[in-house]
Amino acid sequence: MLCLNIFKGLKRFAVNEFYTITELTREFGISTRTVRFYEDEGLIKPVRRGRTRLFRPSDRMLLAQILRGKRLGFSIAEIREIIQMYKAPSGEAKQLRSMIASIKEKRAELEQKRKDLEESIAEMDAAEENCFERLAELGVST
Length: 142
Description:
By secondary structure, this protein is mainly alpha-helical.
C-alpha cells in the first residue's frame, strides 16, 4: 500500500468485513466531515448501499495512512501523488524515491522550525530575566 506505512500493529481483518463511517471516526478520532473530505478528494472510495457508506479493510488502511501522512506534514496533494505513483506500474520504487525526497524536505522544515523555536525560547528567557532584574532594581518582589 502507500509508503506511509510507517506504523505497525494494525489488526488484520477478514476480506468481507466492512466498516461504517461511525466506526472509522471513533477509531481514528476524526469527524465524519474529515472522512467525507477524503472521499470527495478521491483518496478513499467506500462502497455505497443507498446513502450508507461501507468501508473495506483496504479503505480503513488507506485512511490510517492518509492520517499518518497528514501528521507527518504531507499535504493532500502529496499524499494523492504517492497513492497514484503506487498504483502505476513499477510504482513502488518510484514511490520510495519520492518518499525519501519528501521525508528529507519535511525533516529540513522541521529542523528549521525547531531552530526557530529554540531561538524564540532563548529570547523569551532573556526578556523574562530582564523583567526580573528590573523588578529587583525597583525593589518590587516577585
